[in-house]
Design brief:
8% strand; 3-stranded antiparallel β-sheet; 3 strands; elongated; mainly alpha
Length: 118
Amino acid sequence: MLEAKNNDELPAIPGKRYFAIGEVAELCGVKPHVLRYWEQEFPQLKPVKRRGNRRYYQRQDVIVIRQIRGLLYEEGFTIGGARNKLQGEEARSDVTQSQQIVRQMRMELEDILRLLRR
């Protein structure tokens, strides 16, 4: 997974389940309006919306936001370039997970076959 270089300078992510937009803004070093804009530009960002249209981000959202911040502010990507980079990483991750599932299923089927041959 992508890691921004200066995420060491950002505060540690607390062990909470949900974060308000103001908390995420502080944790990621961006303003709340930037987060709202990024939600429109990056399909990976889907905070939970509750009463009053309040946004609640989860830990994974905060990690993705830090990745986006690193791509845009540190590596100089455009919004489109960062979107493509994240989608490419996501696709590679999906392929790896699929390969692991197939390997696991194959091992289990081979075990079943051995049992049936006895």
